[in-house]
Specification:
- By secondary structure, this protein is α/β, with parallel strands linked by helices.
- It is about 45% helix and about 20% strand.
- It has a 5-stranded mixed β-sheet with strand order 2-1-3-4-5.
- A hairpin with a 2-residue loop joins strand 1 and strand 2.
């Protein structure tokens, strides 16, 4: 989780949305990433997608033996990628600031562990307070006027 938090902090320092993720296979990080929607003008580069992209193409068995760590509960798009690649376990830093598709993942057999890491919660709360419109854009909601 510490590597995912470091990714989230990197995204924040770049002016982006502070969410980080790492894909781990047998104790080794295959790919790491953070939300780069702002930095790259991307519609899809959430942290989980960035970590999967940076892991490169892997054999199906590698995904089935991996754990995805993410600092924030995964949205529908990222949860779909988790299911598509058969990643069996997801460790989530926090779901206080956003509740993603945890029930969907569990219903499809994914082991979901939420750790409620104080670093993850405080970083997201700080970001949301500073940039509510950007946060609402990222999660597909309109800002409250």
């Amino acid at each position: 989780m510490q590597a995912a938090i470091a990714e989230a902090q990197a995204g924040f320092s770049e002016g982006g949305i502070p969410i980080g993720s790492v894909l781990v296979h047998r104790g080794a990080i295959l790919g790491r990433g953070h939300n780069r929607r702002v930095q790259q003008g991307s519609a899809i580069l959430h942290a989980e997608m960035d970590a999967l992209e940076n892991a490169g193409r892997q054999a199906a068995r590698v995904y089935r033996e991996s754990v995805l760590y993410t600092t924030l509960s995964s949205c529908a798009m990222c949860s779909g990628a988790i299911l598509l690649y058969g990643i069996p376990r997801v460790v989530i830093g926090e779901n206080h600031t956003f509740m993603g598709e945890e029930d969907l993942l569990r219903s499809r057999g994914v082991v979901v562990e939420v750790v409620q890491a104080p670093d993850c919660i405080s970083l997201m709360r700080q970001f949301i307070a500073m940039s509510p419109a950007l946060w609402n854009e990222d999660i597909g909601q309109t800002a409250v006027e």
